[in-house]
Amino acid sequence: MTTTFEDSRVLSVEHLSVSFDTGKRNTPPVTVVRDVSFSIGKGEIVAIVGESGCGKSTTGLALLGLNPGSNASVKGSINLAKKGGKTVDIVGLRERELRRVRGNDAAMIFQEPMSSLNPLYTIGAQIEEALSVHRRMSSKERAAEALRLVSMLGIPSPAKCLNSYPHQLSGGMRQRVMIAIALSCHPGLLIADEPTTALDVTVQAQIVERMKQLQQETQMAILFVTHDLSLVAEIANRALVMYAGQIVEAGPVSDLFNQPLMPYTQALMRSRPRLGDVRHRIKPIPGGAPNPAALPAGCTFHKRCEHAVAGRCDTQVPSLETTDDGLRQVRCLRWRELRQVPQCAPVLQGQPS
Prior knowledge:
Elements: E1 3-4, E2 9-20, E3 30-41, E4 45-49, H1 56-62, E5 72-81, E6 86-89, H2 95-101, E7 106-109, H3 113-116, H4 123-134, H5 139-152, H6 158-162, H7 171-183, E8 189-193, H8 201-218, E9 221-225, H9 229-235, E10 238-243, E11 246-252, H10 253-258, H11 263-270, E12 321-322, E13 329-330, H12 335-338
Parallel strand pairs: 4-9, 4-10, 7-8, 8-9
Antiparallel strand pairs: 1-6, 2-3, 2-5, 5-6, 10-11, 11-13, 12-13
């Protein structure tokens, strides 16, 4: 069933949960993404940030029905705007219907381009495959469009690149090819799952700059999945902070960096290096992220939180609250009182052992 968006939203996610069956008897499925809701507007870049294992990539894969295996269960709604203004709920679509959406209305750049590109086919053949599936073009037109795409992304000797195999290209070149494939059909939504993780800083900067330029030119929406806060500050308009499969804070990037409200977000900010600030000392977050199969009672962050209060944070489950100005969301029982406390002087009273 399709409807029409009444605003400029390209993606609207409501109460998304992703679970995986362990395959063991008498063992319930493990939920790794829990009740996640957010939206992305046309021309907007939204980042999902958090530690490894918090559910970022699983959320991104769920948006295109790409969670691996038959043991994955996705609940909630994922309304995606299709070309022409209609929308479709990704959840529950058959594989044939999903193939019409993937690459055409929404596309994805995966973390590791070497494992995402087929080693048996040339770069040109793989770019042209996406064009042949979703766009009515002759073979000559597809070849010309493939050449245009790799040239646009700054790949040297583009004609030679199209005749090359993935193993003959550097990591940076392969990542550019992945971007070319993702952009070949002009999708309204681009999901970039840590696309620069394995690249050196120079190539990373070039790719990020190119993505920003393309986004401005085409007005596509981008969901940027990363653990790199510096990239978030550079590329995103809004950010969603995830912890233990939930969104724990969301809002404009400038607000999250200048005054984070959730203690986990504050801890992330303190753990990042700051170039040129000799007074800054990196403070790692103690402990590790909880096992999604055995989450602690109360706030899932309370065992690592320097502001946790025994008898409260370890027993009460916080909801995702909206700030008075309506611009931000935060999941913390104490965020209103902690908002007035300087972050350099954490409240430690009643902290559980």
